[in-house]
Amino acid sequence: MLIHLSATTITGSFTSAGPPAPTYDPAFHTDVAVRTVSFESAKSHFFDTSSWGAFCDVTLTLKQTRQSDSGAWVKIDDYRCRQAFRHFMSLLNRAVYGAAFRRHGKRLRVLPVLERGEVHARALRSWERGTSGRWHIHCAIELPSHYDAVALERLVRNCWAKVEWSSGRILVRDGANAGWINYMLKNRQKSEFDDFLDCIIIESVHNPIADA
């Protein structure tokens, strides 16, 4: 919580009995200001979809543990989630663009966010919701010009099924808008991260118009 102190309050602390008044820490206040500006900048810049065509909202769920080739059970974490999504997008881009992806790096526009918490009704149907504490990924994916939403959903499901950390529960819906972007960036469920911006899978963000 940020405490704002007036000059009167600070001066009064030297003449009134009681515990010492909080001191003004420029470094702390600067850090808070930078974090606030950084978040607002990321929201308005990286997550700007005003130049996009139609796009889908996608929710991907992950296995919380997996048995390795050696037989040991491994728990998923932030790093493995990011690896899984990067692998998924590589498969999806290859399926959509083929040689243009391999040779020229042509990719789908995508905005992904990582969460750890309950998968809420907004994201999955009632019978598909998970329990609290589960890692999952929300993202927005622009429809390529030569695919409709049904075809893209089929590809998303096929590609996600090939990722070793993928869980079978998935949702792809067309007709997404700025409301979905706001939902992805909600403050709840981000407490797993030291900084709110850490929830953005920044290495997989692809929004070239915003980057220009």
Structure, described:
With 212 residues, this protein is α+β, with helices and mostly antiparallel strands. It folds into two domains: 7-42, no CATH class; 52-211, Replication Protein E1, Chain: A (3-Layer(aba) Sandwich). The chain contains seven helices and six strands; from the N terminus they run H-H-E-E-E-H-H-E-E-H-E-H-H. The protein has a four-stranded antiparallel sheet, sandwiched between helices. The longest helix has 20 residues, at 78-97. The chain is globular. The model is unreliable at 1-37 (pLDDT under 50).
Concise summary:
The protein is of the alpha+beta class.
Helix content: 25-40%
- The gyration radius over C-alpha positions equals 21 Å
| Average residue-wise pLDDT | 77
Instruction: Name the poorly predicted regions.
Output: 1-37
Instruction: Enumerate how many helices there are, as a single number.
Output: 7
Shape: globular
Structural class: alpha+beta
> CATH topology of the largest domain, which one?
Replication Protein E1, Chain: A
User: CATH class of the largest domain, please?
Assistant: Alpha Beta
Q: Biggest sheet: strands, sense, closure?
A: 4 strands, antiparallel
Strand content: 15-25%
| Pattern of helices and strands | HHEEEHHEEHEHH
Count of all domains: 2
- Number of β-strand runs: 6
Q: Which architecture of the largest domain per CATH?
A: 3-Layer(aba) Sandwich
Q: Report the end-to-end length measured between terminal Cα atoms.
A: 36 Å
Strand order of the largest sheet: 4-5-1-6
